[in-house]
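Handout, page 2. Input:
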Amino acid sequence: MSKGGASIPDEEWERFLREAEAGGHGAPEEPSARARMVTQRLQEEPGRPEGWRTYTPPRRRGGKGWAALGLAAAVAVVVMAVGPWGVTDWFDGGDGPAATPLAAESERPTGPPGQVAAGRAPTLDEPFRGSPAARWSDGTAGIHLPEARATGWMNRAEVAEALAKTRDFLAASSLDPAVLRGERPDRAIALINPHQSDVRGFLDKAFRAPDRENDPLLLFSRFRSSDVRPAGDVVKTRGRVTFREGERGAVEVSTDVTYVYPVVRAARGSSEVARTIVRREVVMSWDDPAKIVTEPGTFSLVSYKVDTTNGGCDTYTGYLTPAFLAERAVAEAGDGAVVDPYDRSTSMEERMRAGDDEGCGTATRS
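Output:
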């Protein structure tokens, strides 16, 4: 039998049906992001057996910028980046370090942050000047964790530990200074279930030979240290973590965080500051080891999406590649969607559906 182009031996399919009929009990299963792909529409169609699984084969949208890829390691499509070309109102404010900090984002905002007053360009001393991120928190302080409660197979204390380890992963993948310098994110990878073979295959390809479908930037923020260096030691963040009971009693944790990275050229004496903005939505499953083959303290990836501004467009080097004024002066305007990278009022999937997916997009500010 074949599902989405993937051949499944008859005996494996019969075993799956027997387990579904029995309520999913039995020996622990090796997690597979492909096996986790559940389409709500198919579940709701009459005549479909309970527990029906479907795999969405890889698909691409036309153009250079917005792309949708159905990876074996992802439940939902992976949203690729909008580039910086044709950025307008690049420096549109004068917020200094004394700006009043925002409260943590405990729920989705109702709209984008307001425009800040026109002012001077950012500097090494004030790298977030002119950006809404000037009022955001630093590092993990900007990632809101909800109050833990007993959920699925975990008690309250275990959920609290899973949430803390989730934030550890976000820090190790997107805030660790060594990873930002381009080193391999070993601490983050160590938190991913090693039995999730399709994800391991993706990671191996991404770091060995990155390409459109196997790009480490989907999960990790990396700059090439020979090109740029950080403008200071602060990364501004804004985002939140939520959780619910998932499949087979797992605790499914969803993360939605925007990171703002100020950088300068690596050359000695460089002082022009550019900002790269990365938003990631990562969903992970803290599985019951009685039902899923896993290792203590690790999670299985369910899905991941990334949206970048001034990080490169249609470049698959495995590194974020910010543009500075000279590059922007000669670059043509993007022919894709116009977006505000600070707008967190809609999910990335909603933004993709509503926008034009042809070509590299244009950011209204950075």
